[in-house]
Design brief:
Number of domains: 1
Distance between the termini: 15 Å
Number of strands: 0
Strand content: under 5%
Number of helices: 2
Largest sheet: none
Order of helices and strands: HH
Structural class: mainly alpha
Helix content: over 70%
């Protein structure tokens, strides 16, 4: 997950405001379906 890796990178605080709600939901759902 490029977005997750990016979120955990240097731009964490900036990108959190934009991506956190969407990326967390998408990643969580994706991981549930992939498990």
């Amino acid at each position: 997950m490029a977005l997750v890796n990016d979120l955990l990178g240097n731009n964490f605080e900036q990108r959190t405001n934009m991506y956190l709600p969407l990326s967390c939901i998408c990643s969580f759902v994706h991981n549930l379906w992939s498990s």
